[in-house]
Amino acid sequence: MMRLILMLFIAIFATSNIECYAQSASSNQGASNNPGIITGADQTEKYLPLLKGKRIGVVANQSSIIGKKSIVDSLVNLGIKIVKVFGPEHGFRGNASNGAVVSNEIDAKTGIPIISLYGKNQKPSKEQLADIDLMVFDIQDVGCRYYTNINTLEYVMEACAENNKELLILDRPNPNGYVVDGPVMTDDKFKSAIGIHYTPMTHGMTIGEFAQYLNGEGYLKEQCKINIIKVANYDHDMPYVLPINPSPNLNTQQAVMLFPSLCMFEGTAINEGRGTFMPFTILGAPALKGKYAFSYKPVSIPGMSEKPNHKDSVCYGLDLRSYEINKLRKSRQINLSWLIELYNAYPDKAHFFTPGRANQDISAFDLRIGTDQLRKQIIAGVSEADIRKSWEPGLQNFKNIRMKYLLYP
């Protein structure tokens, strides 16, 4: 009985912390949503006539909303015939942990079959598309190569092209749309489940723009027929506070904005807050004890991180929950200084970067970054200025390519 009471107390305390933290992070973000921004999904008058009388497939998760309600629930209530829902990483309702295999199921609320695109197959099969007249894609992205929604987008576009299905994309703002930064992946050997595109780490495009990029740059054997409902009254520099968490470990606006900089630490000895209710806002490791006063203990959290780095061990490092996000906005850059700082502070540098592919000189860090150059530069003590200088040719080339596919200023 006492154990049950204690568990309930912990749950209430954690929920309270999350709510307070979310309010603090939203305030720290520096600006609230522009009330004039209208997502593609919210402009129902533009696409409902395209759906009526057709058998519809929807690629969606918990971020796919009309107003405050699930797009699937809303469309069903509007009389649209949805025959299948396709769910990306974390599942349709967004309750699966990062990297967890998601199985097919029947949605308990609507009775609609849910096909996982993060389980046995990553793209819809011919059989799964056979009874679909039109596919709809509506998922909130955060603008990073290693955020797997753009992988799902490519696989869905490929399947639609192969099976002569049109794809309707309901576009959403990119909360990190102001930044195009990081090394560009240029070699196939660095392709993995967390990166399959020749872009910088942050590409600065919306899902609709990225779909045009995939079509135009030859990622598909044949182009996919797409129709994009654009975001109204939006440009890439506009701050945008997400109305709902895009994934379990991006549970605050602060985490969303820090994600491009802190996700680099996956593939290192540093825990990036997984295993806490503050993911992607804190950094630490047990080996940094005595070098940093801030500490926390990652634990297993079902639905978020079951096996976080340094599980059940006290980590010491940086608390970035109050970091002023406008500093990143003004610089238009990923923060590289935290990576350099923690590498220099780490006592066992030979084990700072974790191994990746067996029998290859490619670390798990390299797969996330898309190149082994940054790891080698960090180890060699190359300055941040010189590291950034080495990125410039690839970045400038990508920016020139990107311009062709932008839908917004």
UniProtKB/TrEMBL annotation:
GO MF, one annotated term: peptidoglycan beta-N-acetylmuramidase activity
Annotated signal peptide: 1-22
Claim: Signal is one of the keywords in the record: yes
Domain of life: Bacteria
Keyword terms: Signal
InterPro entries in the cross-refs: NamZ, NamZ_C, NamZ_N
Domain Peptidoglycan beta-N-acetylmuramidase NamZ N-terminal: 56-253
Domain Peptidoglycan beta-N-acetylmuramidase NamZ C-terminal per the UniProt entry, residue ranges: 257-408
Stored Pfam families: NamZ_C (PF20732), NamZ_N (PF07075)
PANTHER family with a match to the protein in the record: HYPOTHETICAL 460 KDA PROTEIN IN FEUA-SIGW INTERGENIC REGION [PRECURSOR], PEPTIDOGLYCAN BETA-N-ACETYLMURAMIDASE NAMZ
Full protein name: DUF1343 domain-containing protein
